[in-house]
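User: Run a structure prediction on this.
Assistant: Running it now.
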Amino acid sequence: MNESSASVRTVSEHANYFMNLLDRITENDNEVDNELRQLGSKHVFLLDMGIGVPDLEKFGEIVADAFLKLDGIRQSKEATKAWRMLIASIVDHIRVGFESEVRLRKRKGSVFPDGFDESLYDRRNSMPDPRRPSLSLHANSIDNVTRKLSQM
């Protein structure tokens, strides 16, 4: 995993990490998919605080809403669709890592507090959407989006 993710603690550090992650995705960093799954597995501790898979889905909706309010994105159907797909894919990869770690810990019979709430582990989708197998963007896609945004 990216060394910078090891020390991300504050909201500001999370925001910087996320923006760095988006930069790496647009640069076709092939390590991002695995890093997102590892990121999900590292956040299993949130179950102790009552945060689970449904909250990851809600997080994705909140991020999408924030991005889709931006003028350059809001004014283009193509950009809106691309950002929705990208954010959904990011959340799917994080969720897969989160769920994998939950299953691993369940098998080992470890780390879950008494009265563990199974609804926190309620999965909406058990597998990432096959139409979005990777976060890597093709250079043509980036060029097309950049060209369309510059024409606005």
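Residues 123-133 have pLDDT under 50 and may be disordered.
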